[in-house]
Amino acid sequence: MDHRFSGFSYYAKATSLTPEYYQTLLDHYWRRSGTTLYRPDQLHACCVHYTLRLDSTQFKPTRDQRQTINRFNKLLTGDAYTKEAARLHPRTREQAKKRDSEFDLIERVHEAEYDSLQVPPEPAHVFTVTLEHDDFTEEKYIVYENYQRVVHKEQPADITRRGFQRFLCESPVQRKTITTADGKEQRLGSFHQCYRLDGKLVAIGVLDLLPHCVSAVYFLYHESIHKYAPGKLGAIREIALAREGGYRYWYPGFYIHTCPKMRYKMDYTPQYILDPETLAWDLMDKRVTDLLDKQQYLSLSKEKPASLGDNGSEEAAEKITAGNVLAEEDPMDESDDDDNDTFLFNTGMPGVMSLDEIRSLDQMDHLKLRIDGSGMLFETGDLVAWQRQDVGASGCLKAGIAELVAALGPELLEDLVVDFWNPHL
């Protein structure tokens, strides 16, 4: 496994991850881009990344979101279909009353799909949505090329098939099907949710389906459907998938509060923000957004005791002030040595284990290693130089593995295999 700290993120490469393992990684502030895993350093980054999640069981679409779905459904079916279907397949009075007074999210997102329609008559457009393996196809690449060129304004020379494949078609997350506690089959792994209009692929949602969430990796669409608000339709459909498929949470990707293009993520509620230091989830309410308006780095675990100080506890207020001063000091200013500057334990990156915690970790001598193609696994303690090296000596093998362990946390070590042999890394 290749791993390093660069700029304001810690990186690692992965060849195989179970959905359960990647779920835990997400909840430890990691995300993936292709097969590259990265964990941002929120404390020192100029653009601070926060992990968010939405509880699909509590989601209530806004009026604008409901109208977006209804308008698109009306476009798909057409007036002629609506009139003829009402004559051939009339709703009961109770059904009509319920539809007019209630907005059933699952029902509405599927309402105009061809397989959900009663035919005849035929709708104005045939619309299908399928969950497919995240394989490369030329059909998918055409949508990607159009999206990157038209929406993201990339130069044609910078858009390549290999780039698309590496970014959105190569995932270390394993695919499998499990049976849930209520007896339903549930798909896990990396998939492409493909939207086709009259047989033409017009949008793709790149998704990681995990035990407790639908994680949105990327959403892309063809310019021909831009006027129908495809990004909004895709987000709502992914939330519906989280509810319908039993995943519960929708992870919309990292959120950067100072980036105007990411503010749309706040249109979907209720969302929760992951504390970079305690890894606890807190409701993303107005109090939190107000704090983010005032400060780039936010750990609500520090803000909560601070509020106690405001209520009259001077001792608590003094402790928080001291803690904040220490947190704002940049350990990279202490040394002129480039290696020391990027040594994870010198960065002050929040939420990672300290050197003292690493030194007291019994598992350090028993981490699994793959060092050749025999299929055998070895332990770190088997290495000749292991006992001679120190985890605090930047540049040595033991310190490099210690950085990875610190960034992962003890919960992820049991199933970890550090790969020194795989030629694809």
Automatic annotation (TrEMBL):
Coiled coil: none annotated. The keyword Acyltransferase applies. This is arginyltransferase. Its EC number is 2.3.2.8. The keyword Transferase applies. One of its GO terms (cellular component) is cytoplasm. InterPro entries: Acyl_CoA_acyltransferase, N-end_Aminoacyl_Trfase, N-end_Aminoacyl_Trfase_C, N-end_Aminoacyl_Trfase_N. It comes from the Eukaryota. GO terms for molecular function: arginyl-tRNA--protein transferase activity. Residues 13-67 form the N-end aminoacyl transferase N-terminal domain. Residues 327-341 have a biased composition (Acidic residues). Belongs to the R-transferase family. Residues 322-341 are annotated as: Disordered. Keywords: Acyltransferase, Transferase. Residues 139-275 form the N-end rule aminoacyl transferase C-terminal domain.
